[in-house]
Input
Amino acid sequence: MQTGLISLVHAIVLENELPAKALAEEIGKPYSTLLREINPYDKGAKLGVETLLRIMLRTRNAAPLAYMADMMGYSLTAKGTHSSRAAAGGRGRKQEKEMTM
Output
């Protein structure tokens, strides 16, 4: 079964400026393991959240995070883009703080 999130990560790994093999080495994953974990057709493989974070940091691509936020009814805004209140959807300080923790 193909999922939107894994398909997105698959595309990021295979289509970024750094070859997938070099990316795997930089994030500390064997190349074959990384490719299995991001394969949208492999039902038995799972991509860990720590690996996902390392992929996003190294590729400087927050699209998976934006996808997850959207699926949960939130929008993702980079720091400094809007006021923190606007980034929290107009919520009060307490709710805003809870979202950032």
